[in-house]
Design a protein that fits this description.
By secondary structure, the chain is α/β, with parallel strands linked by helices. The chain is 41% helix and 12% strand. It has 20 helices and 14 strands. The strands form 5 sheets. A 5-stranded mixed sheet has the order 2-8-7-6-5, with helices on both faces. A 3-stranded antiparallel sheet has the order 9-12-11. Strands 1-10 form a two-stranded parallel sheet. α8 links the parallel β5 and β6 (224-227). α2 packs antiparallel against α17 (374-386) and α9 (231-241) packs across α10.
Protein backbone atom coordinates (compact mmCIF):
# COMPACT_ATOMS: atom_id res chain seq x y z
CA UNK A 1 0.00 0.00 0.00
CA UNK A 2 1.30 3.48 -0.88
CA UNK A 3 1.99 5.71 2.12
CA UNK A 4 -0.16 8.59 0.92
CA UNK A 5 0.79 10.83 3.79
CA UNK A 6 4.51 10.93 3.03
CA UNK A 7 3.88 10.93 -0.74
CA UNK A 8 2.60 14.52 -0.60
CA UNK A 9 5.49 16.97 -0.77
CA UNK A 10 5.35 20.75 -0.92
CA UNK A 11 7.39 22.67 -3.50
CA UNK A 12 8.44 25.01 -0.68
CA UNK A 13 10.05 22.10 1.14
CA UNK A 14 7.81 22.58 4.17
CA UNK A 15 6.44 19.48 5.88
CA UNK A 16 2.74 20.15 6.30
CA UNK A 17 0.11 17.47 6.96
CA UNK A 18 -2.58 17.26 4.29
CA UNK A 19 -6.10 16.14 5.20
CA UNK A 20 -6.99 13.10 3.11
CA UNK A 21 -10.69 13.72 3.63
CA UNK A 22 -13.13 16.55 3.00
CA UNK A 23 -15.43 18.20 5.53
CA UNK A 24 -19.15 17.84 4.80
CA UNK A 25 -20.78 18.52 8.18
CA UNK A 26 -19.56 21.24 10.52
CA UNK A 27 -20.20 22.27 14.11
CA UNK A 28 -19.98 25.92 15.07
CA UNK A 29 -17.30 26.88 17.62
CA UNK A 30 -17.11 29.89 19.92
CA UNK A 31 -14.02 31.61 21.27
CA UNK A 32 -15.06 33.66 24.28
CA UNK A 33 -13.15 36.65 25.70
CA UNK A 34 -10.37 35.90 28.15
CA UNK A 35 -12.33 37.29 31.11
CA UNK A 36 -15.07 34.73 30.52
CA UNK A 37 -12.53 31.94 30.03
CA UNK A 38 -10.87 32.77 33.34
CA UNK A 39 -14.24 32.80 35.11
CA UNK A 40 -15.14 29.45 33.55
CA UNK A 41 -11.84 27.95 34.71
CA UNK A 42 -12.43 29.13 38.26
CA UNK A 43 -15.99 27.78 38.20
CA UNK A 44 -14.61 24.43 37.04
CA UNK A 45 -12.21 24.27 39.98
CA UNK A 46 -9.15 24.47 37.71
CA UNK A 47 -10.09 21.03 36.38
CA UNK A 48 -10.56 20.94 32.61
CA UNK A 49 -12.85 17.90 32.95
CA UNK A 50 -15.43 20.12 34.67
CA UNK A 51 -15.56 22.77 31.94
CA UNK A 52 -18.73 23.10 29.90
CA UNK A 53 -18.27 22.79 26.15
CA UNK A 54 -20.07 26.12 25.72
CA UNK A 55 -16.91 27.72 27.14
CA UNK A 56 -14.43 25.64 25.11
CA UNK A 57 -13.00 26.70 21.74
CA UNK A 58 -10.82 23.70 20.76
CA UNK A 59 -11.58 20.57 22.76
CA UNK A 60 -8.31 18.65 23.02
CA UNK A 61 -9.19 16.91 26.28
CA UNK A 62 -9.24 13.43 24.75
CA UNK A 63 -9.63 11.36 21.61
CA UNK A 64 -12.00 9.02 23.45
CA UNK A 65 -15.41 9.18 21.79
CA UNK A 66 -14.53 12.45 20.03
CA UNK A 67 -13.12 11.15 16.74
CA UNK A 68 -15.04 12.12 13.63
CA UNK A 69 -16.94 9.20 12.10
CA UNK A 70 -16.83 8.56 8.37
CA UNK A 71 -19.78 8.87 6.01
CA UNK A 72 -19.89 5.08 5.78
CA UNK A 73 -20.10 4.76 9.55
CA UNK A 74 -22.94 7.25 9.85
CA UNK A 75 -24.92 5.64 7.02
CA UNK A 76 -24.45 2.17 8.53
CA UNK A 77 -26.34 3.26 11.65
CA UNK A 78 -29.57 3.38 9.64
CA UNK A 79 -29.60 -0.41 9.22
CA UNK A 80 -29.38 -1.12 12.97
CA UNK A 81 -31.35 -4.11 14.22
CA UNK A 82 -33.08 -3.01 17.46
CA UNK A 83 -33.22 -6.39 19.16
CA UNK A 84 -32.29 -7.12 22.76
CA UNK A 85 -30.92 -10.56 21.83
CA UNK A 86 -29.62 -11.95 18.56
CA UNK A 87 -29.32 -8.59 16.80
CA UNK A 88 -27.94 -8.78 13.26
CA UNK A 89 -25.96 -5.63 14.07
CA UNK A 90 -23.90 -7.64 16.55
CA UNK A 91 -23.17 -10.35 14.01
CA UNK A 92 -21.89 -7.76 11.55
CA UNK A 93 -19.62 -6.34 14.25
CA UNK A 94 -18.50 -9.85 15.24
CA UNK A 95 -17.47 -10.60 11.63
CA UNK A 96 -15.51 -7.36 11.44
CA UNK A 97 -13.65 -8.04 14.70
CA UNK A 98 -12.85 -11.59 13.63
CA UNK A 99 -11.53 -10.32 10.31
CA UNK A 100 -9.36 -7.49 11.69
CA UNK A 101 -8.22 -8.91 15.04
CA UNK A 102 -8.19 -12.58 14.05
CA UNK A 103 -10.07 -13.69 17.18
CA UNK A 104 -13.16 -15.92 17.16
CA UNK A 105 -14.93 -15.16 20.45
CA UNK A 106 -16.34 -11.65 20.88
CA UNK A 107 -17.71 -10.01 24.02
CA UNK A 108 -19.10 -6.46 23.56
CA UNK A 109 -18.85 -3.88 26.36
CA UNK A 110 -20.08 -0.32 26.69
CA UNK A 111 -16.51 1.06 26.77
CA UNK A 112 -12.89 0.15 27.44
CA UNK A 113 -12.98 0.44 31.22
CA UNK A 114 -15.93 -1.95 31.31
CA UNK A 115 -13.75 -4.48 29.48
CA UNK A 116 -10.96 -3.81 32.02
CA UNK A 117 -13.38 -4.52 34.85
CA UNK A 118 -14.38 -7.89 33.41
CA UNK A 119 -10.80 -8.92 32.59
CA UNK A 120 -9.63 -7.91 36.08
CA UNK A 121 -12.43 -9.75 37.86
CA UNK A 122 -11.99 -12.87 35.79
CA UNK A 123 -8.23 -13.26 35.98
CA UNK A 124 -6.78 -11.35 38.97
CA UNK A 125 -6.75 -12.67 42.53
CA UNK A 126 -5.40 -11.08 45.69
CA UNK A 127 -1.61 -11.05 45.74
CA UNK A 128 -1.19 -11.25 41.96
CA UNK A 129 1.12 -8.97 40.01
CA UNK A 130 0.50 -7.64 36.52
CA UNK A 131 3.64 -6.54 34.62
CA UNK A 132 3.05 -4.06 31.80
CA UNK A 133 4.73 -1.40 29.67
CA UNK A 134 2.80 1.33 31.53
CA UNK A 135 -0.46 1.64 33.39
CA UNK A 136 -3.55 3.62 32.48
CA UNK A 137 -5.52 5.26 35.31
CA UNK A 138 -8.69 3.16 35.14
CA UNK A 139 -6.69 0.01 34.37
CA UNK A 140 -4.68 0.37 37.54
CA UNK A 141 -7.78 1.05 39.67
CA UNK A 142 -9.59 -2.04 38.39
CA UNK A 143 -6.57 -4.25 38.94
CA UNK A 144 -5.89 -2.96 42.44
CA UNK A 145 -9.56 -3.23 43.44
CA UNK A 146 -9.30 -6.92 42.58
CA UNK A 147 -6.19 -7.39 44.72
CA UNK A 148 -3.52 -7.07 42.05
CA UNK A 149 -0.34 -5.01 41.94
CA UNK A 150 0.76 -3.23 38.77
CA UNK A 151 4.45 -3.53 37.85
CA UNK A 152 5.68 -1.09 35.20
CA UNK A 153 8.69 -2.58 33.46
CA UNK A 154 9.44 -0.12 30.71
CA UNK A 155 12.99 0.51 29.51
CA UNK A 156 15.10 2.90 31.58
CA UNK A 157 15.07 5.60 28.90
CA UNK A 158 11.31 5.42 28.20
CA UNK A 159 10.63 8.50 30.33
CA UNK A 160 13.16 10.74 28.63
CA UNK A 161 11.34 13.80 27.33
CA UNK A 162 13.54 14.52 24.32
CA UNK A 163 14.56 11.28 22.69
CA UNK A 164 15.27 9.63 19.36
CA UNK A 165 14.14 6.21 20.60
CA UNK A 166 11.40 5.05 18.24
CA UNK A 167 9.64 2.56 20.54
CA UNK A 168 9.50 3.99 24.04
CA UNK A 169 6.46 1.81 24.76
CA UNK A 170 8.53 -1.40 24.76
CA UNK A 171 8.61 -3.75 27.74
CA UNK A 172 12.11 -4.34 29.13
CA UNK A 173 12.60 -8.07 28.57
CA UNK A 174 15.21 -8.56 31.30
CA UNK A 175 12.94 -6.84 33.80
CA UNK A 176 10.08 -9.09 32.69
CA UNK A 177 12.20 -12.20 33.25
CA UNK A 178 13.14 -10.84 36.68
CA UNK A 179 9.44 -10.49 37.58
CA UNK A 180 8.84 -14.18 36.92
CA UNK A 181 11.97 -15.09 38.87
CA UNK A 182 10.95 -12.98 41.87
CA UNK A 183 7.22 -13.77 42.04
CA UNK A 184 6.92 -17.09 40.24
CA UNK A 185 4.56 -17.66 37.36
CA UNK A 186 1.73 -18.59 39.74
CA UNK A 187 1.50 -15.00 40.99
CA UNK A 188 1.68 -13.33 37.56
CA UNK A 189 -1.97 -12.94 36.53
CA UNK A 190 -0.99 -11.97 33.00
CA UNK A 191 1.34 -9.64 31.13
CA UNK A 192 -0.34 -6.57 29.66
CA UNK A 193 0.86 -4.54 26.70
CA UNK A 194 -0.79 -1.23 25.89
CA UNK A 195 -0.69 -0.22 22.26
CA UNK A 196 0.66 3.36 22.28
CA UNK A 197 1.14 4.02 26.01
CA UNK A 198 -1.32 6.74 26.98
CA UNK A 199 0.33 8.26 30.07
CA UNK A 200 3.90 8.58 28.77
CA UNK A 201 3.22 10.35 25.52
CA UNK A 202 1.35 7.88 23.32
CA UNK A 203 4.56 5.96 22.63
CA UNK A 204 4.34 2.68 20.66
CA UNK A 205 6.01 -0.69 21.11
CA UNK A 206 7.70 -2.62 18.30
CA UNK A 207 6.59 -5.90 16.80
CA UNK A 208 9.91 -7.48 17.77
CA UNK A 209 9.34 -6.46 21.38
CA UNK A 210 5.92 -8.05 21.29
CA UNK A 211 7.44 -11.27 19.96
CA UNK A 212 10.02 -11.24 22.73
CA UNK A 213 7.37 -10.66 25.40
CA UNK A 214 5.27 -13.49 23.98
CA UNK A 215 8.25 -15.84 24.16
CA UNK A 216 8.74 -15.07 27.87
CA UNK A 217 5.01 -15.52 28.49
CA UNK A 218 4.99 -18.91 26.74
CA UNK A 219 8.04 -20.07 28.67
CA UNK A 220 6.17 -19.27 31.88
CA UNK A 221 2.75 -20.51 30.73
CA UNK A 222 1.31 -17.05 31.32
CA UNK A 223 -1.37 -15.21 29.38
CA UNK A 224 -0.54 -12.14 27.31
CA UNK A 225 -3.20 -9.42 27.23
CA UNK A 226 -3.24 -6.59 24.70
CA UNK A 227 -4.99 -3.27 25.25
CA UNK A 228 -5.72 -2.45 21.60
CA UNK A 229 -7.39 0.92 22.10
CA UNK A 230 -4.74 2.67 19.97
CA UNK A 231 -3.60 -0.36 18.03
CA UNK A 232 -4.17 1.31 14.65
CA UNK A 233 -1.68 4.07 15.41
CA UNK A 234 0.78 1.56 16.92
CA UNK A 235 0.56 -0.48 13.72
CA UNK A 236 1.18 2.70 11.71
CA UNK A 237 4.32 3.44 13.74
CA UNK A 238 5.53 -0.13 13.24
CA UNK A 239 5.15 0.35 9.48
CA UNK A 240 6.93 3.72 9.62
CA UNK A 241 9.71 2.85 12.06
CA UNK A 242 10.40 -0.90 11.93
CA UNK A 243 12.36 -1.80 8.81
CA UNK A 244 10.82 -5.27 8.49
CA UNK A 245 7.35 -3.82 7.98
CA UNK A 246 7.95 -0.83 5.70
CA UNK A 247 6.15 -2.55 2.80
CA UNK A 248 3.56 -4.42 4.87
CA UNK A 249 -0.18 -3.74 4.78
CA UNK A 250 -1.64 -2.33 7.98
CA UNK A 251 -4.14 -5.18 8.14
CA UNK A 252 -1.33 -7.75 8.15
CA UNK A 253 0.49 -5.84 10.88
CA UNK A 254 -2.67 -5.75 13.00
CA UNK A 255 -3.25 -9.48 12.57
CA UNK A 256 0.30 -10.32 13.60
CA UNK A 257 0.10 -8.06 16.66
CA UNK A 258 -3.12 -9.69 17.80
CA UNK A 259 -1.81 -13.19 17.11
CA UNK A 260 0.66 -12.85 19.98
CA UNK A 261 -2.06 -11.92 22.49
CA UNK A 262 -4.21 -14.56 24.18
CA UNK A 263 -6.81 -11.90 24.90
CA UNK A 264 -7.39 -8.49 23.34
CA UNK A 265 -9.59 -5.78 24.82
CA UNK A 266 -10.22 -2.28 23.53
CA UNK A 267 -12.07 0.98 23.75
CA UNK A 268 -13.84 1.50 20.45
CA UNK A 269 -14.09 5.18 21.43
CA UNK A 270 -10.50 5.21 20.22
CA UNK A 271 -9.86 2.30 17.86
CA UNK A 272 -13.01 2.58 15.72
CA UNK A 273 -14.16 6.18 16.32
CA UNK A 274 -17.40 5.02 17.97
CA UNK A 275 -18.65 4.65 21.53
CA UNK A 276 -18.29 1.18 22.99
CA UNK A 277 -15.67 -1.46 23.63
CA UNK A 278 -15.04 -5.16 23.64
CA UNK A 279 -12.97 -8.25 24.41
CA UNK A 280 -11.86 -10.86 21.87
CA UNK A 281 -10.02 -14.17 22.22
CA UNK A 282 -9.53 -17.49 20.46
CA UNK A 283 -9.75 -19.43 23.71
CA UNK A 284 -13.12 -20.84 24.67
CA UNK A 285 -11.87 -21.34 28.23
CA UNK A 286 -11.00 -17.64 28.57
CA UNK A 287 -14.28 -16.68 26.95
CA UNK A 288 -16.31 -18.77 29.40
CA UNK A 289 -14.54 -17.20 32.38
CA UNK A 290 -15.73 -13.77 31.22
CA UNK A 291 -19.10 -14.50 29.61
CA UNK A 292 -21.30 -14.48 32.70
CA UNK A 293 -19.60 -11.38 34.10
CA UNK A 294 -20.46 -9.54 30.89
CA UNK A 295 -24.13 -10.42 31.18
CA UNK A 296 -24.10 -9.34 34.84
CA UNK A 297 -22.36 -6.00 34.41
CA UNK A 298 -22.96 -4.93 30.83
CA UNK A 299 -25.99 -6.47 29.15
CA UNK A 300 -26.79 -9.40 26.92
CA UNK A 301 -24.08 -11.02 24.79
CA UNK A 302 -25.25 -9.36 21.57
CA UNK A 303 -25.23 -5.75 22.73
CA UNK A 304 -23.09 -5.47 25.87
CA UNK A 305 -24.44 -2.12 26.98
CA UNK A 306 -24.06 -0.47 23.58
CA UNK A 307 -26.62 1.05 21.27
CA UNK A 308 -27.05 -1.15 18.20
CA UNK A 309 -26.43 1.97 16.10
CA UNK A 310 -22.99 2.30 17.67
CA UNK A 311 -22.44 -1.42 17.06
CA UNK A 312 -23.11 -0.92 13.35
CA UNK A 313 -20.73 2.03 13.21
CA UNK A 314 -18.11 0.04 15.11
CA UNK A 315 -18.22 -2.73 12.51
CA UNK A 316 -17.40 -0.21 9.79
CA UNK A 317 -14.87 1.66 11.94
CA UNK A 318 -12.91 -1.48 12.83
CA UNK A 319 -12.43 -2.18 9.12
CA UNK A 320 -11.41 1.45 8.56
CA UNK A 321 -8.63 0.93 11.12
CA UNK A 322 -6.90 -0.99 8.34
CA UNK A 323 -6.97 2.14 6.13
CA UNK A 324 -3.66 3.97 6.37
CA UNK A 325 -5.23 7.30 5.41
CA UNK A 326 -7.49 7.01 8.47
CA UNK A 327 -4.94 6.01 11.10
CA UNK A 328 -2.16 8.30 9.82
CA UNK A 329 -4.20 11.50 10.09
CA UNK A 330 -3.88 12.01 13.82
CA UNK A 331 -0.16 11.10 14.06
CA UNK A 332 0.67 13.46 11.18
CA UNK A 333 -1.01 16.43 12.89
CA UNK A 334 0.58 15.50 16.21
CA UNK A 335 3.98 15.37 14.54
CA UNK A 336 3.43 18.81 12.99
CA UNK A 337 2.55 20.35 16.37
CA UNK A 338 5.38 18.57 18.21
CA UNK A 339 7.99 19.54 15.62
CA UNK A 340 6.86 23.18 15.61
CA UNK A 341 7.02 23.43 19.39
CA UNK A 342 10.27 21.50 19.65
CA UNK A 343 11.89 23.82 17.10
CA UNK A 344 10.85 26.77 19.30
CA UNK A 345 12.63 25.25 22.29
CA UNK A 346 9.44 24.23 24.09
CA UNK A 347 9.75 20.93 26.00
CA UNK A 348 7.53 18.31 24.36
CA UNK A 349 7.68 14.52 24.24
CA UNK A 350 9.72 13.32 21.27
CA UNK A 351 9.53 11.45 19.05
CA UNK A 352 5.91 12.39 18.32
CA UNK A 353 3.53 9.63 19.34
CA UNK A 354 -0.15 8.79 19.14
CA UNK A 355 -3.19 10.39 20.75
CA UNK A 356 -1.81 13.89 21.24
CA UNK A 357 0.98 16.40 21.57
CA UNK A 358 2.40 16.05 25.09
CA UNK A 359 3.98 19.13 26.67
CA UNK A 360 6.45 18.54 29.51
CA UNK A 361 5.05 20.64 32.36
CA UNK A 362 8.11 20.17 34.58
CA UNK A 363 10.33 21.58 31.86
CA UNK A 364 7.77 24.28 31.01
CA UNK A 365 7.24 25.35 34.65
CA UNK A 366 10.42 24.42 36.55
CA UNK A 367 9.49 26.94 39.26
CA UNK A 368 6.26 25.09 40.15
CA UNK A 369 6.91 22.13 42.51
CA UNK A 370 5.32 18.80 41.64
CA UNK A 371 3.35 18.99 44.88
CA UNK A 372 1.64 22.06 43.38
CA UNK A 373 0.63 20.18 40.23
CA UNK A 374 2.44 21.87 37.33
CA UNK A 375 0.61 19.87 34.63
CA UNK A 376 -2.75 20.91 36.06
CA UNK A 377 -1.61 24.51 36.33
CA UNK A 378 -0.36 24.48 32.74
CA UNK A 379 -3.65 23.00 31.48
CA UNK A 380 -5.56 25.74 33.33
CA UNK A 381 -3.30 28.50 32.08
CA UNK A 382 -3.56 27.38 28.47
CA UNK A 383 -7.35 27.35 28.64
CA UNK A 384 -7.44 30.85 30.15
CA UNK A 385 -5.30 32.36 27.39
CA UNK A 386 -6.72 30.38 24.44
CA UNK A 387 -9.95 28.48 25.12
CA UNK A 388 -8.05 25.25 24.35
CA UNK A 389 -9.02 22.41 26.67
CA UNK A 390 -6.22 19.92 27.26
CA UNK A 391 -5.82 17.24 29.93
CA UNK A 392 -3.50 16.98 32.91
CA UNK A 393 -1.50 13.75 32.88
CA UNK A 394 0.66 14.04 35.97
CA UNK A 395 0.38 13.98 39.76
CA UNK A 396 -3.27 15.04 39.82
CA UNK A 397 -3.88 11.85 37.81
CA UNK A 398 -1.89 9.88 40.39
CA UNK A 399 -2.96 8.80 43.90
CA UNK A 400 -1.93 9.19 47.53
CA UNK A 401 0.02 6.61 49.54
CA UNK A 402 -1.07 5.01 52.81
CA UNK A 403 0.23 8.06 54.71
CA UNK A 404 -1.86 10.45 52.66
CA UNK A 405 1.05 11.87 50.68
CA UNK A 406 0.96 12.35 46.91
CA UNK A 407 2.70 9.67 44.89
CA UNK A 408 4.45 12.00 42.46
CA UNK A 409 3.95 11.04 38.83
CA UNK A 410 6.89 9.85 36.72
CA UNK A 411 6.15 12.66 34.26
CA UNK A 412 4.05 15.82 34.37
CA UNK A 413 2.38 16.21 31.00
CA UNK A 414 -0.19 18.50 29.44
CA UNK A 415 -1.82 16.33 26.78
CA UNK A 416 -3.30 18.09 23.78
CA UNK A 417 -5.30 15.34 22.09
CA UNK A 418 -5.78 15.22 18.33
CA UNK A 419 -8.95 13.20 17.64
CA UNK A 420 -9.05 11.75 14.14
CA UNK A 421 -10.22 14.12 11.40
CA UNK A 422 -11.46 16.81 13.80
CA UNK A 423 -9.05 19.77 13.70
CA UNK A 424 -7.82 21.76 10.71
CA UNK A 425 -4.29 22.95 10.06
CA UNK A 426 -5.15 26.57 10.94
CA UNK A 427 -6.56 25.44 14.28
CA UNK A 428 -3.39 23.46 14.90
CA UNK A 429 -1.34 26.56 14.09
CA UNK A 430 -3.44 28.51 16.61
CA UNK A 431 -2.59 25.91 19.26
CA UNK A 432 1.11 26.19 18.48
CA UNK A 433 0.95 30.01 18.57
CA UNK A 434 -0.77 30.17 21.97
CA UNK A 435 1.55 27.58 23.54
CA UNK A 436 4.52 29.64 22.31
CA UNK A 437 3.09 32.80 23.87
CA UNK A 438 2.43 30.99 27.12
CA UNK A 439 5.99 29.67 27.19
CA UNK A 440 7.35 33.19 26.80
CA UNK A 441 5.22 34.19 29.79
CA UNK A 442 5.61 31.01 31.80
CA UNK A 443 7.02 32.75 34.87
CA UNK A 444 3.56 34.19 35.52
CA UNK A 445 2.03 30.73 36.11
CA UNK A 446 1.85 29.41 39.66
CA UNK A 447 0.67 26.25 41.38
CA UNK A 448 -2.63 24.73 42.49
CA UNK A 449 -4.02 23.23 45.69
CA UNK A 450 -7.01 21.00 46.43
CA UNK A 451 -10.40 22.32 47.42
CA UNK A 452 -12.33 19.07 46.94
CA UNK A 453 -10.44 15.80 46.48
CA UNK A 454 -12.34 12.56 45.75
CA UNK A 455 -10.70 9.37 47.05
CA UNK A 456 -10.93 7.56 43.69
CA UNK A 457 -9.87 8.85 40.25
CA UNK A 458 -9.63 12.35 41.67
CA UNK A 459 -8.62 13.90 38.36
CA UNK A 460 -12.13 13.38 36.96
CA UNK A 461 -14.20 15.23 39.56
CA UNK A 462 -11.79 16.99 41.94
CA UNK A 463 -11.65 20.76 42.35
CA UNK A 464 -8.60 22.93 42.95
CA UNK A 465 -7.74 26.60 43.22
CA UNK A 466 -4.78 28.79 42.38
CA UNK A 467 -2.36 29.20 45.28
CA UNK A 468 -1.72 32.85 44.35
CA UNK A 469 -3.23 35.50 42.08
CA UNK A 470 -1.34 34.17 39.05
CA UNK A 471 -4.49 33.87 36.86
CA UNK A 472 -5.09 37.62 37.24
CA UNK A 473 -1.48 38.39 36.27
CA UNK A 474 -1.74 36.11 33.26
CA UNK A 475 -4.94 37.82 32.12
CA UNK A 476 -3.35 41.25 32.47
CA UNK A 477 -0.33 40.26 30.37
CA UNK A 478 -2.57 38.73 27.69
CA UNK A 479 -4.61 41.94 27.48
CA UNK A 480 -1.40 43.97 27.22
CA UNK A 481 -0.11 41.87 24.32
CA UNK A 482 -3.36 41.11 22.46
CA UNK A 483 -5.64 44.00 23.40
CA UNK A 484 -9.25 43.12 22.63
CA UNK A 485 -8.30 40.20 20.40
CA UNK A 486 -9.56 36.79 21.40
Amino acid sequence: MTDQNSAIKFYSGEQIPVELHKVRIVQKLFLKPIEERKAAMEEAGFNTFLLSTKDVFLDMLTDSGTNAMSDNQVSSMLQADDAYAGSQSFYRMERALRDVFGKHYVLPAHQGRAAENIVSQAFIKKGDVIPMNYHFTTTKEHMELNGGKVLEIFADDALEIKSSKLFKGNIDIEKLKAVFKEYGKERVAFVRMEASTNLIGGQPFSMQNMRDVKKVCDENETMMVLDASLIGENAYFIKQREEEFKNADIKDILLEMCSYADLVYFSSRKVSSTRGGGIVTNSKDLYMKMRDLLVLYEGFLTYGGMSVREIEAMAVGINETCDETVISQSPSFIAYAVNQLDAAGIPVITPPGALGCHVDAKGFLPHVPQAEYPAGALASALFIISGIRGMERGTISSVRDENGDDILADVELLRLAFPRRVFTLSQTMFVVDRVKWLYDNRELIGGLEWVEEPPLLRFFMGRLKAKTDWPEKLLAKFKKDFGESL
